[in-house]
Specification:
Layout lengths: L2 E6 L11 E12 L2 E11 L14 E6 L8 E6 L7 H14 L4 E2 L5 E2 L2 E6 L4 E6 L26 E3 L4 H5 L17 E4 L12 E5 L12 E5 L8 E4 L7 E2 L3 E11 L13 E9 L18
Antiparallel strand pairs: 1-17, 2-16, 3-14, 3-15, 3-17, 4-5, 4-10, 6-7, 8-9, 9-11, 12-13, 12-16
Length: 298
């Protein structure tokens, strides 16, 4: 029967990413005709969809008019690294409006914002709505101390930066219209399907593997979450797919969890366990050609 090893949070390399693990064998092991397969993975769906590195998708811009047109104030919004839904991106946009005193308070005490991100489920799109900013305070409303009324109504301009554009489904550099002096609501919908999670599938890569059918050749397994963000993923294959080790002597085994783009993931929750099977092919029955790298237990 194959031997079992399990990697946990104790095996994580302390590089801040929580996606590289090292298992040190008690003694050096010679692999001459051995294979490895994933038996079970348990981990939390907590890898970031927005960060400064490596995704570089954490900024967008908006422009507002404070005082006479056409002068505009440009603000770059930098989103803290994390896991976001579109609704949370909208909340962060509102947070930046509050910080800039760019909002009004209506006659029932609710904040009024002049731009928003929304999910449009019918179109499978993200929708950006912008609203005309008034030139004077409506009756019964109040304004924060720093709010400056324009001399003509306008809609805020939202500019979608490169990489962030994939999250919301717009072309890189897309900008909504200023629409000065018109006073109407503007709506724009994404032109392609939003990739709110750039890494919907992740790959397990192992040292010592040369799988001729995989790129990179070290990939031994893939995981696609079927749970909500923050919930635990438990993945056990119905049939083990063994990949053959390169012949040699090993003191350790190194795993990496890679994104869809094959870059290292940044995982927030290090709580995980990855159980692997290592088999000696000389002692086990197998089917298939050794050169094809795939085996099935008998």
């Amino acid at each position: 029967m194959p031997s079992t090893i399990t990697l946990t949070a104790a095996n994580i390399v302390a590089d801040g990413f929580n996606s590289s693990l090292v298992y040190n064998f008690p003694n050096s092991i010679k692999f001459s005709d051995h294979s490895i397969a994933v038996s079970k993975i348990a981990m939390y769906y907590s890898w970031q969809n927005i960060n400064a590195f490596p995704l570089a998708n954490n900024t967008f811009q908006y422009q507002i008019v404070q005082g006479p047109l056409p002068a505009q104030t440009a603000v770059t919004v930098t989103i803290p690294d994390g896991v976001y839904e579109v609704s949370q991106l909208n909340e962060f946009l509102q947070f930046t409006f509050i910080a800039a005193d760019f909002y009004l308070i209506n006659d029932v005490g609710l904040n009024v914002y002049y731009a928003e991100f929304l999910v449009n489920p019918t179109l499978y799109a993200v929708q950006i709505n912008t609203y005309p900013v008034p030139i004077a305070l409506p009756a019964g409303w109040t304004a924060p101390a720093g709010f400056i009324f324009p001399n003509a109504t306008f809609n805020p301009v939202i500019t979608i930066n490169a990489n962030f554009n994939k999250i919301v489904g717009f072309a890189a550099g897309f900008a909504t219209a200023l629409n000065s002096g018109v006073g109407t609501i503007l709506s724009s919908t994404s032109s392609v399907a939003p990739q709110v999670q750039p890494n919907p599938t992740v790959f397990i890569s192992s040292s010592g593997i040369q799988n001729i059918y995989a790129s990179p050749s070290s990939i031994i397994y893939s995981v696609t979450p079927t749970v909500a963000v923050g919930e635990q993923i438990v993945d056990s294959p119905n049939e083990y797919a063994f990949s053959k080790f390169l012949e040699g002597t090993y003191s350790d085994l190194r795993l990496r969890i890679l994104g869809t783009d094959l870059n290292q993931l940044k995982i927030l929750d290090p709580t995980m366990s990855i159980t692997l099977l290592i088999r000696d092919n000389k002692l086990e029955g197998f089917t298939g050609n050794l050169g094809q790298q795939q085996y099935s237990i008998k």
